[in-house]
Design brief:
Layout: H1 3-16, H2 22-32, H3 38-49, H4 52-69, H5 75-89
Helix pairs in contact: 1-2, 2-3, 3-5, 4-5
Length: 95
């Protein structure tokens, strides 16, 4: 693991710490580290919760934490949070 990957992992853990249920926290962590695209993360969260409002709440928690806890070196993570949030706020229209 490179230093950057270690820093991203630590930041993702910091931003998802305490989020429940644990499987949802792990999905969000994988998304923030870049291991899972935001669109697939949202799909997995919906499959776990079966409630769009709950998915929105989980994403809002990460968004709020990113705004409050992000550090200067967390820019890549902030970009991932923004992309995840954007998909919740303005879902892509199927063609």
């Amino acid at each position: 693991m490179t230093k950057r990957e270690g820093n991203e992992q630590a930041a993702a853990e910091r931003l998802t710490s305490g989020i429940h249920p644990e499987p949802a926290r792990l999905v969000l962590e994988r998304c923030l580290t870049g291991d899972l695209p935001p669109s697939l993360a949202l799909r997995e969260l919906f499959e776990l919760t079966e409630e769009p409002e709950r998915v929105r709440s989980l994403v809002d928690q990460v968004t709020d934490r990113a705004a409050a806890l992000s550090r200067a070196g967390d820019r890549l993570l902030q970009d991932r949070v923004d992309e995840l949030t954007q998909l919740v706020v303005e879902p892509e229209k199927p063609y």
